[in-house]
Amino acid sequence: MQRIESERLILRNFTEQDTDDLYRYAVDPEVGPRAGWKPHETREESLSIVRMFIADDNVWALERKSDHRMIGTLGLHHDKWRNLPDVRMIGYVLAQDCWGQGYMSEAVKRAMRYGFEEMNLRLMSISHYTFNDRSRRVIEKCGFVYEGLLRQTFLRYDGAVFDEAAYSITKNEWLKHQFIV
Ligand SMILES: CC(C)(COP(=O)(O)OP(=O)(O)OC[C@H]1O[C@@H](n2cnc3c(N)ncnc32)[C@H](O)[C@@H]1OP(=O)(O)O)[C@@H](O)C(=O)NCCC(=O)NCCS
Q1: How far is CA 97 from the centre of its chain?
Q2: 56-65 mean pLDDT
Q3: Taking the domains of the chain in order of start, what are their residue ranges?
C-alpha cells in the first residue's frame, strides 16, 4: 500500500514491529468480535496476522502522528459481491481507547480520496453488522449510500449469525459529497 497521510494519521504498510501494538488491541473482546473475528490469545497470533497483512498488501497500518503508536487498520479489499477490477471494499478496526475521537472517519475519508483519485476506482463499498452503531455513523459521515440489508449473511466464530447493512459510493457521488462536508 502506498504511504499516505491525513491530519493526525499516517497510513502505511505493516512491519513486524507493529505486532505489539496490534496485540494490545486485538486481545480486547470489544474490538475483533464487532468486525467478526475472535480476539487474539497470543502475541504469535498477532504476528501471523501482521505477516498476512504484509503478504496481502491490501491493509494500511494507522499510525498516530502524535506518539507513533499503531492504533488500527484500514483495508481496501476485493468486494465479495462484485467482480469488477476497479471496486474495493473498505474494512477497518481501531483500538478501543481511541474510539470516539474521529480517527476512523478521518482515515476513511483519506482512503476514499486515495481510492478515487489515485487508484481511479469506480466504486467503494463498505458494510457493518446491524448492531454496530459506531461503524454505521462512520459510514454515514463519509457519505456512503445505503444499499440494503443482507439478512443472515455472516456466521461468526462463536456461532452468532448477523445481518449486514451494505453501503457503497460511486466516484461521482463522492465528488458531490466533497461540496457538502
Ligand atoms: C467502528 C470504529 C472503527 C469507529 O471508529 P471511531 O474512530 O471511534 O469513529 P469516529 O470517532 O470517527 O466516529 C464514531 C461515531 O459514532 C458515534 N458513536 C459513538 N458511540 C455511539 C453509539 N453507542 N451509538 C451510535 N453512535 C455512536 C460517535 O459520536 C461518532 O459520530 P459523530 O461524529 O457523529 O458524533 C471503532 O469503534 C472500532 O474499531 N470498533 C470495533 C471494530 C469494528 O467495529 N470495526 C468495524 C466493523 S464494520
Answers
A1: 17
A2: 97
A3: 4-180
